[in-house]
Structures are given as C-alpha cells and as structure tokens.
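Sharing a chain and its predicted structure for anyone who wants a worked example. Both blocks are below, sequence first, tokens second.
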Amino acid sequence: MDRIKQYMVDNQEQILEDIQFIVESDSPSKNKELTDACKQRIQQLFERYFGYKAEEIKETQYGNHLRFEFGEGEETVLLLSHFDTVWEKGELSIKVDGDKVFGPGIYDMKGGLVQAIWSLKGIKDLQIPMNKKVIFLCTSDEEIGSPSSKTIIEKEAAESDVALVTEPPVAGTGALKTGRKGSSRYFIDIKGKAAHSGNNHQDGINAIKEAAQHVVYLESLTDYEKGTTINVGSIKGGGKLNVVPDTASIGVNVRVETSEEQQRIDEIINGFKPYTEGITLKIRGGINRPPMNRSESTGELFELAKEAADDLNIDLEEAYVGGGSDGNFTANLGVPTLDGLGAEGKGIHARDEHILASKVPERAALLCKVVSWV
C-alpha cells in the first residue's frame, strides 16, 4: 500500500475521533459564541499535532477566523476550509450507521477540515518534502456568503500560487470541482399601507400582494439553457388576518454561469419598480460570489491531482457544479483552484448529512499528496 495511504489507514480511528470532536461543537454561522467555541477545538488540534496554534483573526459579529502557516518556501499553497454550518444548536445529532457517520456539518465541511489537518500532519510525520509553504485558512462565515472572510481570502489568494478547497467532492462519484456557478443574494423589502380588512379595505395597500407579483416575475427569469436559476427562498409579511398587510419581504438566491449573466440579473433586480401605486421598495444585497470558471491552469492542477489519485487507485473525475464556495473568490483572481478535496459522503444541507468512514483514509491521503506535489 502507498505509504501515505497506509499512514492514514493506521490513523483512521483517530481521524474519525477528531472529526467527531469538531462536529459535536455546534457552530451555526450567525452565532459567534458557538463558532468561537468550535474554533477553540480546532486550535486544540493544531497545538496537539504541530506544537503551535493558528493565528487568530478577530471578528466582532462573526466567529474569529484562523490562519495556520505550515512549511517553508517562497511560493504558497492556500488551503481553504470553513467550520460554520447551516444547523442550529442541537438540531442534528451525531450517530453511526455502518459506514455512515452522521452529524451537523460533518460533510459540509468539518470532515474535510480535519482531513486537511491530517494531510499536513502526514507530511510532518512522514517527512515528505514540499515545494511550497501552506497557508491554511479556517473561516467561520462561508455558509452565509463569507461577509467577513472574503477580503481575508482574497488577500491571501493574491499572494498564493495555488488554492485548494476542502469542500466535499461530488456525492456518488467523488469528483473534484473545477467549475462552479456564481451566486447572488437579494432581499426585497416592501412597504404598503395597513387598513381594516372589513371596514376600510379600500384604504389599504397590500404588501403581500405586491410581493406575490415580484415572486412570479423573479421565478420567470430562470433559464435552464443558460444555466440561470432564480429561487425565491423566503417570504414573510403581514400578521392579523383582519388587517391589510403593510409589510412584506422576500429573499432571493441567484445562480449563473457567467459574469455577464450575473450582472444582467443584478441590473434587473436593482431596477425593480412597484406594481402598485403607493408601494415603496427597498432592495438589499447583490452579487456575492462570481462564477468559478475552469482555466487552463486549473486543468493542469486537476491533472496533477489525477496522477496523485492514480497512485492511490482512485479513479478521479472532475465536474462543474451549481453550488458556490470560497473557491469562487480565488478562481476569480486568476489563481488555479481545485475544489472538492474534502470528505466523501452525501447530504449537503440535508438532515441525512453524512460522511463515509471507509473513504476517509484515501481522501486524506489524496489531499496530502496534492499539497506536497503542487
């Protein structure tokens, strides 16, 4: 067996224990106290395995980010992981069912984060030579669009030669991700006029009715041939049934394949006008992540990963996917970016989110090889 894979197989139980140690610390993106508590557990792993902690990047609204430097060299590999999740405290529990290990954020992407730590530990313990030093960023707000970490990621990417992202690979195939759609987020706040629904209905201006008209139009902008999807994912408004509702708000998620299309949809939404006289609109949000387009250099990076996979008897494929990640930021800066280097499993943002325990050694070994080869 390949010596790196053998090392990961020999340490499989400990790797899985470390994954559980991080997963059992709930870390919903908007809860600073909980994300900071999870961050402390990651720091414990860094100190245990390397003898020093990561640099802590302080935040006031979101959890603090971590910057861990490993190895030496004039050139840099940027390794990206996040430890926030979409799950609230106690919403999911950890359980094991055969080869499947379930838990909040275990697939997206705490499993990948721990595998990244072990890939660096493997390089240290096996004294594997490296071509570049590693800057390993662990961030706390990816699931809500990286509002505080985006500038940090872009600053590090501008000084890096390669970016590797430990988001999960494609479920079922284990394919790495060399392209992703761009994403935008919008909130449309609608203000109408309240009135008694029985006595003075004619005096009211219904904000929910206005919202409904915008929802129908927004959904009509979806164009599968272009790869454009518009999803109205949230709506709220009104209250008492005998009152004409004077407020409503809708949340919109946009996914596109090109920057031009992203800009076109942005202009349409920001140009919205009321359908009804007396309504006022307030539009918040905008373009979040640009498309991650496969470049020639990213293709070369995938070929290197494929060679590493061949050493491990892994039949590695690449894929273009609709979801976004922090890799969109690095690719947009022209940095060769390879995504999907995390744990194999299934159930991103689903209640059956899980990883496959049997795949942990080979995926950790794959990342270890790629980090040391680039």
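Comments welcome. The domain at 182-289 is CATH 3.30.70.360 (Alpha-Beta Plaits).
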